[in-house]
Amino acid sequence: MTDATKCPNCQSEHAYQDRDLWMCPECGHEWSAAAGAAADAPVEAGVRDAHGNVLTDGDSVIVMKDLKVKGSSSVVKGGTKVRNIRLQDATDGHNIACKIDGIGAMNLKSEFVKKA
């Protein structure tokens, strides 16, 4: 069985086609063959912000919501502009290293920022 006919959700081999959709009897997931082909297309690698824009080293970002600083009573306010970010590989999701005025060096998750 090809990967196109396996369930993308649970990898079950018991998926079947019903008109334009593929269905998985084990998990109930439904998907279209066109969506499966689009998923196989190469995706541009990189860190993306909350809106899906690709971020690069040196970009400026804006924090979208108030973020508590762990181990401190400080808060990074929503709307704060952070300049000259550095991207890093992180297993905990904190993939942006930066310096914030008044707080200092810290790491942010890309899902809480938007490209400026």
UniProtKB/TrEMBL annotation:
Domain Protein YjdM C-terminal: from-to ranges: 47-116
Residues of the Protein YjdM N-terminal domain: 6-32
Family according to the record: Belongs to the YjdM family.
Source taxon at top rank: Bacteria
PANTHER family registered for this protein in UniProt: PROTEIN YJDM, PROTEIN YJDM-RELATED
One Pfam family hit: Zn_Ribbon_YjdM
Name of the protein this chain belongs to: Alkylphosphonate utilization protein
